[in-house]
Amino acid sequence: MPIFCEASARPEAHYQFLAGGLSGFLEVVCLHPLDVVRSRMQLQGTRSVRGEVLYRGPLHAMASMYRHEGLTAFWKGIVPPVCVETPKRGAKFLMYELFKPYFYFGAPQPTPLTHAMAGTLAGTLESFVVNPFEVVKITQQANRLERLSTLSVVRSIIKHDGWGFEGLYRGITALMARNAVFHFGFFGFYNAIKDWVPISQDSGSELLRKVTIAGFASCLAGVMSFTLDMAKCRIQGPQPVKGEVKYRWTIATIRTTFREEGFRALFKGLSSMLMKVVPGGAMLLVSYDYIYEFLKTTNY
C-alpha cells in the first residue's frame, strides 16, 4: 500500500509543478510591463535625478517610457523573472500542498488559517531562490538610458558587491517580509472568501467566481504588503547617490522614506502594482487549474 501511494503521488507532484511553472510563465510575459512601471515609480524620489523625467502616475510613466525608450523598455529585466518564475511557481505550489497538513491545528479539514500559514512558509522559503533574480531585474528596470544585458548586470553586481547581503542577496529580509505578508493574505483571503461564496453549477459562472475571488484576494494582499515591497525595491535598486548606501534595512528604509517624502511615498506605484497583481493573481489561479486538469486528463 505505501508503494502504491508513493507511486500515485509522484504524478500529482509532477502535474502540480508543471502547471504552476507554466502559469507563472504566462503571468510574467503578459504583465511584466506593469512591473517595470511599478519599479520605476518606487525608485524615484521627489526631485529629478540626472535630468530624468519624474513620473506623475502609471499612465504618464508608460507614455514617457514609450516616447523616450521605445516599446522594448516595457520588457526590461524580463529574463531574470522568466528564468526563475517557472521553477519557482512549481516549487511554491508543491511546498504549499506539503506544508498544509502541519497547520490544521486540530481541525478535521484545512481552515483559512491553514492555507494562510502554508502559503506564508512557502512564500518565505522561495525568497532565497528569487532574491538574486529580483536584484538583477530591478537594476535593469531602473536604467533609463540603455538596455542592459542580464549577464552583464550579474557580472557587474558580483564584481563590485559580491554574492552576499551587499550584492545578489541585498534586500533578502525585505523580500522575505513582503512575501510572508502577501502570501498570508492571498491564500488566507482567497480560501476564506471562497467558502462564503456558493459554488456555481454553470462552468462560466464558476470561472467568473474564481477569477473575482482570486483578484480580490490579490488586491487585499498587495495593499497589505506594498510598503514592504517599496522598501525592498529601494534596497535592491540603484542607490540615489553613487557610492553611498542610503537604503540598507527594511524598517530604516521605510522610516527614511516617510521622513523625507511623506506618507504618500510609502505607496508610490501602488496603482500600477494593483493593475498587475489583481489580474495576475486571477490569471495564475485560473491557468493553474486548467493546465493541471489538462495534464491529468491527458496523462502527460
From TrEMBL:
It is a multi-pass membrane protein. It is found in: Mitochondrion inner membrane. Transmembrane segments: none annotated. Its main location: mitochondrion. Solcar repeats lie at residues 11-102, 110-196, 209-294. The keyword Nucleotide-binding does not apply. Pfam families: Mito_carr. GO terms for cellular component: mitochondrial inner membrane. Keywords: Membrane, Mitochondrion, Mitochondrion inner membrane, Repeat, Transmembrane, Transmembrane helix, Transport. The keyword Transport applies. Gene3D superfamilies: Mitochondrial carrier domain. It catalyses: 2-oxoheptanedioate(in) + 2-oxoglutarate(out) = 2-oxoheptanedioate(out) + 2-oxoglutarate(in); L-2-aminoadipate(in) + 2-oxoglutarate(out) = L-2-aminoadipate(out) + 2-oxoglutarate(in); hexanedioate(in) + 2-oxoglutarate(out) = hexanedioate(out) + 2-oxoglutarate(in); citrate(in) + 2-oxoglutarate(out) = citrate(out) + 2-oxoglutarate(in). It comes from the Eukaryota. Belongs to the mitochondrial carrier (TC 2.A.29) family. Transports dicarboxylates across the inner membranes of mitochondria by a counter-exchange mechanism. Can transport 2-oxoadipate (2-oxohexanedioate), 2-oxoglutarate, adipate (hexanedioate), glutarate, and to a lesser extent, pimelate (heptanedioate), 2-oxopimelate (2-oxoheptanedioate), 2-aminoadipate (2-aminohexanedioate), oxaloacetate, and citrate. This is Mitochondrial 2-oxodicarboxylate carrier. It comes from Drosophila gunungcola (fruit fly).
